[in-house]
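[User]
If only I could read backbone structure tokens as easily as an amino acid sequence. I have put the entry right below:
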Amino acid sequence: MSSRRLRPTPRWVIGIAVVLLLVVSELTHSGAFFSKATLSTLTPFVGVMIIASLGQAVVIGAGGIDLSIPSTMTFVGVMILKLSESKDDRLWLAAIAAVGLCAIVGLVNGLLVERLRLNPFVATLAVGQVLAGVARYLRGPVPRFTRVPALLVRRTRWNVIGVSVALLIAVGLMIAGTLIFRSTVWGRRLVASSASKPAATLIGLNSSVFRVTTYIAAAALSGVAAVLLSGQLGSPDLSLGSPYLLATVVSVVLSGATLSGGRVDLVGVALGAVFITVLNHDLRVQGYSSGFAQLVQAVVLGGGLAMVHLLGSRNAWWPRLSAALPFRFLTTTPPSTTTPTTK
């Protein structure tokens, strides 16, 4: 009788890590972590992190990276203030215009990387610096408007039993993205063109067009995340997007993705975003500085990259490890496929 061994995957590794972190958080918060007050404070930032990380995941899956996400989010916060003028009747115009400008920023990033063949690190970082300068110029030394429209505040702070609307939107986007990649022609072609550029060229796919589209999608998702975050904070400033530079990359790496491109698990990305956000929250509650939190993120990034390498080479070490254990770890025995013989 044969046996089939269940091998570790990045999704269940990060899933177990999230569960353990939530248990630790509950213990350190004296049983109040899952209270409505705590959830209504934390889940909006979990939702924003998931949305921004999904955008980063799409780009990394195509073999690139977008370091302009923090500046894009800050730029959106400034545009919401400037275009809405704190008036409810101008909110939708301001939000649509801001996200539309983000799409243009993504198009610029994509063209710089795919058409001019610039390094994505350099190109997106340069675009981010330009956006940061534009945002600072538009805001001015003494901004005329410092509060977003009250309507945006009410909508983004709405919650269901402590679960923020931002998190609900993030889950919806994650499900939609997963279905697009798995069930649509465009999604399957994007995955195919990202997995192997030479192979995509041989079968007639214009992989450059698909990769440019990923930058547009990432920038648009960053814009949506920034609108939700602006409403949650009420008074977005020039540091609005700062926490989302390294954190989004870490969230993607924790899902098992490699920075060289390939298939990306959006559910794993969402779990990685939950892990990073809850970890940062716990560090702040314990009184650690933001600098220490960034150091922890860097350590988690290194650990995530090591996990990807180990799981990628598990065919070499996992069978020997599981065979050496005194018990059969994570094994299943499928039903016998032999047919009975008759005399």
